[in-house]
Predict the structure.
Amino acid sequence: MCRSSETPLDRIMSGFNELPGWLAEQPAGQLGEVIIKGREIIDRTEAMAAEATRRFEKAGGYKADGFLGMVPWLRVKGKLSGGAAAERVEVAHQLKELPRTEEALARGQIGYQHAVAMARTAEHLGAAQVRKAEVTLLKAAETMDPGQFVGVAKNFEHRVDAQAALAEANRAHERRYLRIGQPLDGLVRIDGLLDAEGGAIVRTALEPFAKPAKGDTRTPEQRLADGLVERCQAEIGPGHPDGAGPRPQLIIKASRDTLAGIGGAPAGEVEWGGTLPAETVRRLACDSAVTRITGLGELEQEVTHAGRSIPPATRRAMVARDHRCVFPGCDRPTPWCDGHHLVHWADGGPTKLENLGLVCRTHHRKVHEEGWKLRREKDGRWIATPPARTVTARIRSG
Ligand SMILES: [Zn+2]
Ligand SMILES: [Zn+2]
């Protein structure tokens, strides 16, 4: 073949033809380098493909093949699932506004999944916001795996726009589900999705039950499965409802500003990974019986001391007064309920009966994350007001 008519892609392709023979001669111990190089080729190819996708789409090139859009074209011609094709096209659009990120991907300094996290952040906040911090974010991306980097990006989103971060967390919360299948071949399949908080709670509850015993031959997954069953067994069994066994406690790291709901504050950090919107941290701190809130860095002492649970006597008085969730129309019993501070303690509200109300976890979420207002009238009635413009007060006599 004439050298001048050969494109760079042709040269890469002919390299691939030589690969199998060359690979067979490589000592197994050195294949790590081969895998890393291979990953880099894939990532750098994604950068090239992103630029090509943009230009091809702008020129309407997909129409010549009879397609109505870039995503279906990429799905069929690029052999991708619908979701993967849509992601490529969206990332290509966002990277146009984030040239530094695209360049870092093209040079192999970051991976494709780092670029996806950057693109998603730009999608949520607008590319202009991300460009202001692009250099810092890319530096973080270069030293972290994509999973860790998503945490950094989410924290950045929270600092810039806590409202948008909360809306996104609420959307994620909507996707939660748990499916417990019918027994099949002696096995029951359980699968599901939980939000970051739910996942951390389940994990915290199961971990003490999933520790390996001496000479334990079970896999970590088997131990976790056994832990789930044992934990549930402890709940329904004749044993000790007050939990004589291990007492798990969920640990959240947060700053004073996050607890006070101040704009620009970082997100809360869950011990098991993942970030929580400020309002979720405020809810968990509202009744910290099952949650321990600790400070971030230099605020460690301050927050750890401020975090308080409701004293047993006050809790008993609250339970005696409210009996069940006070949200109008709700009758969930005490064990499913938290003590809610009408004025949050982080805002100076006292942990005293007149400032507390028993609410189930679903309704506690409503008054924090979903913006409902809950108040107690002088005559003891509880009134809940939804956040929308349609102000319909619902009344339950207490
Ligand atoms: Zn609360
Ligand atoms: Zn309720």
